[in-house]
Specification:
This protein is mostly helical and 171 residues long. The chain is built from seven helices and two strands; from the N terminus they run ααβααααβα. A two-stranded parallel sheet has the order 1-2. Helix 2 crosses helix 7.
């Protein structure tokens, strides 16, 4: 967000005021909201970082009896935040809890029980988090995935020139 603020400041200092009618500076967090606002299809109540952390804590509490490696950490604020961030990363890579369970099974077959247990726990936490989201919430990952699907159906960027700045890669 601070990079966007800097870009907007440079924009207003460099270009004439009329350019504001033709240019919009967005982040990958803002873009799905713009797409959904202009094209519809917003399904649930959006939760931000704090909401994701609360849902992660609830998910940890729900699946604590199932956990093999992380059960003692479920009430640690640092672990809750770490798991919330980890779930966000998994979603951005389009990895599901089912995929993690399969990886856990593969690690177990390879007799790597420590890795298998961790993958199993993360899959349980992730699955519980997703179940809580389905009760009427959307997070950044859900909005981004829905926006990507919506962009396949419509010509949102038609007649526009799009620049991506400040990224060394995309996932």
């Amino acid at each position: 967000e601070s990079a966007v603020l800097q870009a907007e400041q440079r924009f207003f200092q460099t270009l004439p005021a009329s350019a504001n009618l033709y240019l919009e500076i967005l982040t990958f967090r803002r873009l799905p909201n713009i797409i959904h606002r202009k094209c519809g299809k917003v399904s649930g109540t959006f939760i931000g970082e704090s909401g994701k952390t609360v849902l992660t804590a609830l998910a940890l509490n729900d699946c604590m009896p199932l956990l093999k490696k992380y059960s003692e950490l479920t009430e640690s604020p640092d672990f809750i935040l770490s798991m919330s961030n980890y779930i966000t990363k998994l979603k951005s890579m389009e990895l599901s809890s089912d995929m993690l369970l399969k990886a856990s099974d593969a690690a177990s077959l390879a007799e790597n029980e420590k890795t298998a247990g961790k993958l199993y726990d993360i899959a349980q936490i992730y699955s519980s988090y997703e179940a809580l989201l389905k009760s009427g919430y959307d997070d950044d990952g859900d909005r981004m995935q829905a926006a990507a699907k919506r962009l396949e159906e419509i010509d949102f960027f038609g007649g526009s020139t799009v620049f991506a700045d400040g990224f060394s890669g995309f996932t």
